[in-house]
Amino acid sequence: MRKLTLLVLFLASFTLQAQSKKMDKMIDDIESKVIEWRRDFHQNPELSNREFKTAKKITAHLKSLGIEVQTKVAHTGVVGILKGKKPGKVVALRADMDALPVTERVDLPYKSQVTGTYNGKETGVMHACGHDTHVAILMGVAEVLSKNKDLLKGTVKFIFQPAEEGAPAGEEGGAKLMIKEGVLENPKVDAIFGLHISSGTHVGNINYKPGGAMAAAQRFVIKVKGKQAHGSRPWQSVDPIVASAQIITALQTIVSRETELTKEAAVITVGMINAGIRNNIIPESAEMIGTIRTLDYAMQKKLNDRMKEMVPAIAKAYGAEATIEIASGTAITYNNEALVTEMLPTLQRVAGKKHVRLVDAITGAEDFSFFQEKVPGFYFFLGGTPLTLAEKDAPSHHTPDFFIDDSGLKLGVKTMVNLTFDYLNMK
Asked: Where would you tag: which of 98, 222, 278, 322 has the fewest CB atoms within 10 A of its CB?
């Protein structure tokens, strides 16, 4: 009996190894196609809620694979459903599709020359955050899984999401709208995986963090009202610019002097100031717009409360009036600890244990967080920096010099394929 059991185990192991080698060969073969897709998307970027050509290309590819396709989800989103041969759980894989209002400076054969309008201004359009790589990777994953659906125990839902960077003013969009329209239902999703290419991580490496991995983001608008006067007679004015300057300085003390930063990081940034029209006129009003980043909801509430107390009080001290509005943005990108523990061996097997690195949380934000509020999710970071460049010297995301080495895409495909199979085969 013992010999028979050992034989069964040996045959099962041999079969799994053969299947793994087969899929590895398929991923190797598809790499050039994934890179070609990525470069096409990079050269033809589209802003949030305007990803029409991107969606059309994704739809055509999924249909060519025999995958059931839903279109126009949350405006331009595409959802593919692949059912395995055997019943089982449902896993979702997500890629975001939108580009940014950034004019590319990188000299590439596939450099973006696209222009568009953002907030009423003409601008270049660029995949300056790597969403082009995310889409191409997931298209590759769909092709590999569709050709191995007889081995799938369960269902895979491919979510190609628009407007991760935020919907245009006056519009809904992104993950929140996809959820509202039922993307996690019919069939009901049990878990979701996502990745983000990282400009500051070498190709071949994967970074991850259980729990809070990325910050919640909020947008605030402060309006200061003073009294207009000639610039040569400031004593006749109530200067909203001076009051604004004092508010900006004081806001930083909330983080540096009132926030327990050993617990979690927090950020308050004023990113826009609008005031005045001429050098010798003290204006009547000023407006400041900024962002708040937090990794703990109790800390978020404290920052919000103190800002609401501080802003009008400081303005009053300078004879002005001020209001503040704080709008919710994304939630904390929270990686389910149990799911991370279950799937970490998969990452380590695929990338090599030394290439899978536990990192600290970052204050960037992701609307993948909304999916994680509904179902267990795991979001990790895939290396995209060339090995010839120090990680610290890599150009930042959301900048004109942002660059990703295409050689990192294959690991993304391999990781998502293996996470899918391993998750669906877990008891």
From this structure: 278
Which of the four pLDDT bands, split at 50, 70 and 90, describes residue 11? Answer: very low
Least confident of 7-21, 88-102, 386-400: 7-21
Provide the angle, in degrees to the nearest 10, between the axes of the packed helices 297-317 and 240-258: 150
* Residue of 357, 322, 71 lying closest to 205 (CA atoms): 357
Q: Is 164 marked active-site?
A: yes
- DSSP-derived secondary structure for 185-248: TTTTPSEEEEEEEEEEEETT-EEE-SEEEE-EEEEEEEEEE-B-EETT-GGGSB-HHHHHHHHH
The catalytic residue among 164, 190, 264, 296 is 164
Distance CA 131, CA 44 (A): 12
Q: pTM of this prediction?
A: 0.92
Query: Residue 77 corresponds to which tokens in the numbers above?
Result: 């989103």
Q: Which two tokens stand for residue 210?
A: 């259980």
Percent pLDDT > 70 in the chain is: 96
Pick from 213, 202, 198: nearest CA to 396: 198
**For residue range 63-100, what is the model confidence (pLDDT) as tens digits?**
999 999 999 999 999 999 999 999 999 999 999 999 99
The token pair at 386 is 């060339």
**Mean pLDDT along residues 213-236:** 98
Closest to 97 (Cα-Cα) out of 62, 27, 48:
48
- Residues 6 or more apart whose CB falls under 8 angstroms from that of 394 comprise 199, 200, 385, 403
- At residue 263, φ and ψ (nearest 5 deg) are -85, -55
Pull the structure tokens for residue 247: 């508010």
98 as an active site residue: the answer is yes
In the numeric block, the tokens 């960077």 are attached to 165
pLDDT at 413 over 70: yes
User: For the chain, percent helix, then strand, then coil, each to nearest 5?
Assistant: 40, 30, 30
Is 90 exceeded by the pLDDT of residue 339?
A: yes
Is the confidence at residue 346, as pLDDT, over 50? yes
Q: Nearest CA to 212 among 365, 350, 59?
A: 365
Out of 51, 98, 165, 366, the active site residue is 98
Number of residues that make up the chain: 427
Q: What residue has token string 């979701």?
A: 192
In whole angstroms, give the CA distance from residue 62 to residue 143: 8
Average pLDDT of span 301-315: 98
Burial 342-359 (b: 16+ CB within 10 A, else e): bbbebbeebbeeebbeee
Give residue 345's Cα distance to chain centre: 24
Q: What is the pLDDT at residue 18? A: 64
